């Protein structure tokens, strides 16, 4: 990468950076307990929990790092962290 | 190069006087430089301001230690400050006072006038700087009366300008300027 | 047109003629007359700029940085503690290559609190990546603002610039200044063409984070821009001379240096007093001269070395002290002349507004003759 004047850079790189491979634990969303409060989407540091058209909250596993914050905050304890098989 | 030192008290307009004299001198066709002795401005505290006059560009930046002219805006200062310090032989001191002070230095020309009285009568306030500039113009010949009037009209507006011009003119005539 | 005016007003006037689109500043003695005048000009629609009022100098320069990044020509002014409060932002402005021009109305740094002049403030930011110009009189202070914009905004440079002039000694002095007209300034200084700018439709980020793999290279690029600025300053100064007849094509001004045995090095308003003292000493047969540094950053190593060829002793007048080392300029001159055979003596002088007279300059020549230097000159030992 050649240096840009004034340390300037174009944005949008985070999308290229697929962090899903970092995961050791995978959040599994138990939709039957979900009250659609949206906390998981709000706190996800990757911003990868998306509300579908049906109003379901689902993580995008291409980016989900498996940090477990969503599981921690879910008031219904409706997100389970399961170890990935690698 | 000729140098002037103005002694006054904070609030008496010594710095304004120095600036007006420099502007008038410039308008009279010489190079001039005016600056205050950069103190902390407190009303009533002794202050100084300086003016230089020269036929060529002025480069010197030090304060004035051996003036050709001294203006003393308030004769009570003479007790507190050596206002004549360094005044050159044959130099001119202009003092605002009702009566001539004692113990004046020799070899200098001391001119006294009651600028406070003139200022009170003409301006209605005891601000003597523009009156004393008139006296300075007459005594020193450094600035022309027209140039002084121009400087005063640049600085003050309307009737205030008229009054200040009148005050300076009265002092000028009183000292015998133009004679 | 030659007119008589206060230094601060001359600087405010020329700042206006340089057509800044954004002005952000916080008032501080002795800079206040400049920003008061500019605020008036904006309020009276004499200057078509956004005047951003802020609660501190840190915010002032931060606002300037954002405005510059968005593609505006930006002006600010500060001094002393105000500049100290900008310290962090100064490095960011330079690192992001924003060509802001800021007047530094030189004043000492506290404690103890002092509103009076020395050059400790701007000197203390010598490593920040800002160009630093120093003015001897109000004419030079006026002219250097035009040159500073031209150099700073050159795409070979893209560095911010301080125009330094001594607080009170110049800022509060009335003296004649040949003030150019708006048309003349426009003819000299074209509108600002940003290298790139923040634009919501084509977003970029500036001042990105650099890992150890890249940081050194960014700093190297800054240093290269500083070095390139030397030619740009000379060019801008020559163009200025062509248009206005006052020559700033040199970074160092030589005064009576031919055949001089003792040379002073100084910056700012003290140079006027030094020149007058030199004339008197020359009349008395003393071979003295002055190398006046107009551009302290970039440091004019080549020009200064050339100017001093032939002198036997150099007396550096430093209105600052790098505590624990010596005067900042003296230290650099010593490094520059190491091995040349020229004796370099440094004098810390005029700190915190101590007045300097012609006889002080003559006294320093006597000291230099005896090889006595690297000292505070004019200490009142009776109070120590
Ligand atoms: S585990 Fe972390 S990264 Fe993955 S969805 Fe939950 S909060 Fe987001
Ligand atoms: S935090 Fe739990 S309950 Fe709330 S939306 Fe997410 S999964 Fe559903």
From TrEMBL, chain A:
Q: Which Pfam families match?
A: Fer4_9
Q: Which UniProt keywords apply?
A: 4Fe-4S, Electron transport, Iron, Iron-sulfur, Metal-binding, Repeat, Transport
Q: Which residues form the 4Fe-4S ferredoxin-type domain?
A: 25-54, 55-84
Q: What is this protein called?
A: 4Fe-4S dicluster domain-containing protein
Q: Which organism is it from?
A: Methanoculleus frigidifontis
- Name the PROSITE patterns on file: 4FE4S_FER_1, 4FE4S_FER_2
Keyword Iron found? yes
InterPro entries in the cross-refs: 4Fe4S_Fe-S-bd, 4Fe4S_Fe_S_CS, PorD_KorD
Q: Is this entry keyworded Cell membrane?
A: no
Query: Per the entry, which co-factors are needed?
Result: [4Fe-4S] cluster
UniProtKB/TrEMBL annotation, chain B:
Top enzyme class, one word, equals oxidoreductase
> What UniProt keywords apply to this chain's record, in alphabetical order?
Oxidoreductase, Pyruvate
Pfam families named in the record = POR
EC number in record: 1.2.7.1
- Protein's UniProt keywords contain Repeat: no
Manganese: present as a keyword of the record? Answer: no
Domain of life, per the record? Answer: Archaea
Catalytic reactions on record:
2 oxidized [2Fe-2S]-[ferredoxin] + pyruvate + CoA = 2 reduced [2Fe-2S]-[ferredoxin] + acetyl-CoA + CO2 + H(+)
List residues of the Pyruvate/ketoisovalerate oxidoreductase catalytic domain: 10-173
Recorded hits in InterPro entries, A to Z, give: Oxidoreductase_gamma_subunit (IPR051626), PorC_KorC (IPR011894), Pyrv/ketoisovalerate_OxRed_cat (IPR019752), Pyrv_flavodox_OxRed_cen (IPR002869)
Q: What is this protein called?
A: pyruvate synthase
- What organism does the UniProt record list as the source? Methanoculleus frigidifontis
From TrEMBL, chain C:
Which InterPro entries is this protein grouped with?
PFOR_II, Pyruvate:ferred/Flavod_OxRd, Pyruvate_synthase_PorA, Pyrv_Fd/Flavodoxin_OxRdtase_N, THDP-binding, Transketo_C/PFOR_II
- Gene3D superfamilies assigned: 3.40.50.920, 3.40.50.970
Where in this chain does the record put each Pyruvate flavodoxin/ferredoxin oxidoreductase pyrimidine binding domain? Answer: 15-233
Enzyme Commission number, as recorded: 1.2.7.1
Positions the record marks as coiled coil are none
Query: What is known about its subunit structure?
Result: Heterotetramer of one alpha, one beta, one delta and one gamma chain.
Protein name (Swiss-Prot/TrEMBL): Pyruvate synthase subunit PorA
> What organism is the protein native to?
Methanoculleus frigidifontis
Q: Which gene encodes it?
A: porA
């Amino acid at each position: 990468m050649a240096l840009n004047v004034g340390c300037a850079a174009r944005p949008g790189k985070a999308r290229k950076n697929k962090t899903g491979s970092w995961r050791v634990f995978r959040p599994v969303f138990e939709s039957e307990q979900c009250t659609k409060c949206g906390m998981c989407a709000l706190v996800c540091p990757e911003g990868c929990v998306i509300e579908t058209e049906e109003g379901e909250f689902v993580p995008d596993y291409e980016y989900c790092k498996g940090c477990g914050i969503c599981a921690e905050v879910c008031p219904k304890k409706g997100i389970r962290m399961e170890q990935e098989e690698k | 190069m000729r140098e002037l030192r103005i002694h006054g008290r904070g609030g008496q307009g010594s710095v304004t006087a120095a600036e007006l004299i420099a502007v008038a001198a410039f308008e009279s066709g010489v190079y001039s430089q005016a600056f205050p002795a950069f103190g902390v401005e407190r009303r009533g505290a002794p202050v100084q301001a300086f003016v230089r006059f020269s036929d060529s560009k002025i480069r010197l930046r030090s304060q004035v230690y051996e003036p050709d002219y001294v203006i003393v805006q308030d004769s009570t200062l003479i007790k507190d400050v050596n206002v004549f310090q360094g005044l050159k032989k044959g130099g001119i001191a202009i003092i605002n006072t009702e009566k001539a002070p004692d113990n004046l230095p020799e070899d200098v020309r001391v001119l006294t006038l009651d600028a406070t009285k003139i200022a009170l009568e003409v301006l209605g306030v005891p601000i003597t700087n523009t009156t004393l500039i008139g006296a300075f113009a007459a005594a020193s010949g450094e600035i022309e009366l027209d140039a002084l009037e121009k400087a005063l009209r640049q600085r003050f507006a309307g009737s205030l300008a008229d009054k200040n011009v009148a005050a300076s003119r009265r002092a000028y005539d009183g000292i015998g300027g133009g004679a | 047109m030659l007119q008589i005016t206060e230094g601060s007003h001359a600087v405010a006037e020329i700042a206006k003629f340089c057509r800044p689109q954004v002005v952000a500043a916080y008032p501080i003695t002795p800079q206040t007359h400049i920003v008061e005048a500019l605020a008036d000009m904006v309020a009276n629609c004499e200057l078509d700029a956004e005047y951003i009022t802020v609660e501190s100098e840190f915010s002032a320069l931060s606002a300037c940085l954002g405005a510059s990044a968005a593609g505006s020509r930006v002006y600010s002014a500060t001094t002393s503690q105000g500049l100290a409060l900008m310290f962090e932002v100064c490095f960011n402005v330079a690192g992001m290559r924003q060509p802001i021009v800021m007047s530094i109305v030189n004043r000492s740094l506290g404690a103890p609190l002092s509103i009076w002049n020395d050059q400790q403030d701007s000197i203390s930011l010598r490593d920040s990546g800002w160009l630093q110009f120093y003015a001897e009189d109000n004419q030079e202070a006026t002219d250097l603002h035009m040159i500073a914009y031209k150099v700073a905004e050159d795409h070979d440079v893209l560095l911010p610039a301080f125009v330094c002039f001594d607080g009170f000694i110049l800022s509060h002095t009335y003296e004649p200044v040949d003030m150019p007209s708006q048309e003349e300034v426009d003819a000299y200084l074209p509108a600002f063409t940003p290298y790139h700018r923040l634009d919501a439709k084509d977003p970029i980020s500036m001042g990105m984070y650099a890992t150890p793999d890249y940081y050194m290279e960014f700093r190297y690029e800054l240093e290269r821009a500083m070095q390139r600025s030397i030619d740009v300053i000379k060019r801008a100064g020559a163009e200025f001379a062509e248009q206005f007849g006052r020559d700033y094509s040199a970074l160092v001004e030589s005064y009576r240096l031919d055949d001089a045995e003792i040379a002073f090095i100084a910056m700012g308003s003290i140079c006027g007093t030094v020149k007058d003292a030199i004339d008197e000493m020359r009349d008395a047969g003393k071979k003295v001269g002055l190398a006046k540094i107009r551009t302290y950053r970039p440091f004019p190593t080549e020009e200064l070395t050339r100017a001093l060829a032939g002198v036997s002793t150099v007396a550096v007048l430093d209105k600052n002290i790098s505590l624990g080392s010596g005067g900042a300029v003296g230290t650099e001159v010593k490094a520059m002349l190491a091995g040349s055979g020229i004796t370099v003596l440094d004098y810390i002088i005029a700190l915190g507004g101590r007045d300097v007279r012609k006889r002080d300059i003559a006294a320093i020549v006597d000291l230099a003759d005896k090889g006595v230097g690297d000292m505070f000159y004019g200490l009142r030992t009776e109070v120590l």
